[in-house]
Amino acid sequence: MSGGSRTVRKAEVRLKWDPSHWEQPPHHLDIIATTYSTDAPYGRPVYVVHFDCRSPDGTINMSRHSQTGQGFGYVEVMTLELDRLAPSFARVVVGVAIHQDSGLKTFGDLSNAGVLVVEGYQELLKDDFAQVSGSTAATVAEFTRDASGAWKFHEMVRGFDSDPVIFTTEMGSAPQL
């Protein structure tokens, strides 16, 4: 499924990439989620969830984390229980950032990288980062709450050129037209 929007109650974001060559420093990627209030849906995030922290209410958390990409299939997983989020939240943005500790790395420098967003067995998004190959970070999904309180999924693959810390402040910004 691609484009459009779909009502979602609980989503899972999965990330994969091949480990670096044995002579090279490891590729380290992270799934990051930022939450936005109904008062400022494009403002500063209320909180950020990533590999070493979960949401204060436990609705967004990492169940699997990798610093190298080693393993079979999707080696990093984040679960978002959107239907449990407080009514004060209007928007959640999910992205992927590449750590830049050992020099500049872009999605184009990685092999077999991919992200999968699912609800149960329903695939919402599958992407290989080809359209953002020159970027060091990318948003992949946006979840917005509508007037009825239902959460909608929107594909949002958009590249950024920033490290993970700066990315968390930029990823929820309104797209430049």
Protein topology:
Elements: E1 5-8, E2 10-16, E3 29-37, E4 47-49, E5 60-64, E6 76-81, E7 89-98, E8 114-119, E9 122-127, E10 137-145, E11 151-160, H1 164-170
Antiparallel strand pairs: 1-11, 2-6, 2-8, 3-4, 3-7, 5-6, 7-10, 8-9, 10-11
Short overview:
The protein is 4% helix and 42% strand. It has one helix spanning 164-170, and strands at residues 5-8, 10-16, 29-37, 47-49, 60-64, 76-81, 89-98, 114-119, 122-127, 137-145, 151-160.
Give a written overview of the molecule.
Helices cover 4% and strands 42% of the residues. Strand 8 and strand 9 (122-127) form a beta hairpin. The chain starts with a strand and ends in a 7-residue tail after the last helix. The chain is mainly β. The model has no long low-confidence stretch (mean pLDDT 88).
Structural class: mainly beta
Number of strands: 11
Could you give the order of strands across the largest sheet?
1-11-10-7-3-4
Radius of gyration: 15 Å
Mean pLDDT: 88
Elements, N to C (H/E): EEEEEEEEEEEH
By oligomeric state, this entry counts as single chain
pLDDT under 50 segments (min length 5)?
none
Annotation field: number of helices: 1
> Sheet with the most strands?
6 strands, antiparallel
